[in-house]
Amino acid sequence: MSEVHVYGVVPSSAPAVTTSGVRLIAHRDVAALVSDLQDNEPRAVRVLRSHWRVLEEAASQTTVLPVRFGTVMADDSAVVEEFLAPSHDELVASLAEMAGKVQLTLKGFYEQDALLSSVVGRSPVIARLRDQVRSLPEAAAYYKRIELGQLVAAEVDRARDRDAQEILGRLRPLALDARLEAPTTAEAAVNAAFLVDVRQIDEFSRAVAALGRELAGRIRLRYVGPLPPYSFTGDAAGTGAWG
Q1: pLDDT score recorded for residue 60
Q2: What pLDDT was estimated at residue 113?
């Protein structure tokens, strides 16, 4: 029997996913969403093509606990014996805890001109050093340019912390939980995940839209969801299965 890729865990009563090749391996009250890995198909290609799509389709129909990206087990028996059976009660509890909840992800990206203008405006030291760099020949300004870059980077970090906390503070009251995650790019202002009751999605979305209008011209927002609760299940959905 071929190896199987494990996407996530759902209640054993969950409807089947329509994605070709994806099936359920059930054990008592829980089931693993899996697909077979073909010997002639590169593992990374299959994982990248289907992992998130399968989880999001399943999450549109039932509660899903995502399993760590790229988890592969030897066969169907291993999924049951090494993962579902020993973790059964913990998985049942986690599914119950996440029932009726989704993840909404908000990323913000600075408009560079507005950010630099703000940095210079907040720091007289940076403003003076910038003027000095502009007034000197390129060779003579070399070390001052390095110093200027370091000062700007530090000020951008402070601005990012300040803006991320402000955005989190605005939206946190509408969520059950929230996590600030590491910035994904240098221009990132915020990268936050929110665990939201499905009945609150519309209200949360309206708050994000209002925030986007307020921040327009300085920070552009990218709002994604509903998603499975990737950031809120921790390792509970992967006991015994992480590779």
Answers
A1: 86
A2: 75
How does pLDDT run across 127-184, given as a tens digit for each residue?
776 776 676 777 667 776 777 677 777 777 788 888 899 999 999 999 999 999 888 7
Reported as type and span, the H/E element at residue 208 is helix 201-215
Distance, CA of 3 to CA of 74 (rounded, Å): 5
d(CA 191, CA 211): 15
Q: CA-CA distance, 225 to 106, in Å (whole number)? A: 9
Query: What are the DSSP E strand ranges found in the chain?
Result: 4-11, 22-27, 30-36, 65-66, 72-73, 101-110, 177-180, 188-197, 219-227
Q: Omega before 226 cis (within 30°)?
A: yes
Q: Cα–Cα distance between 151 and 1 in angstroms, integer?
A: 59
Cα distance between residue 79 and residue 243, in whole Å: 12
Whole-angstrom distance, CA of residue 205 vs CA of residue 174 = 10
CA angle 227, 56, 173 (to 5 degrees): 10
pLDDT tens digit string along 65-77? 998 887 888 888 9
Mean pLDDT, to the nearest integer, of 79-88? Answer: 94
- Alpha carbon distances (Å) from 96 to 64, 92, 99: 10, 6, 5
Domain range 102-122+159-227, its CATH number among 3.30.750.24, 3.90.1150.10, 3.30.70.100, 1.10.3720.10? 3.30.70.100
Span(s) in the chain for CATH 3.30.70.100: 102-122+159-227
Task: Answer yes or no: are the C-beta atoms of 189 and 109 closer than 8 Å.
Answer: yes
Measured CA to CA, the distance from residue 216 to residue 218 in angstroms comes to 5
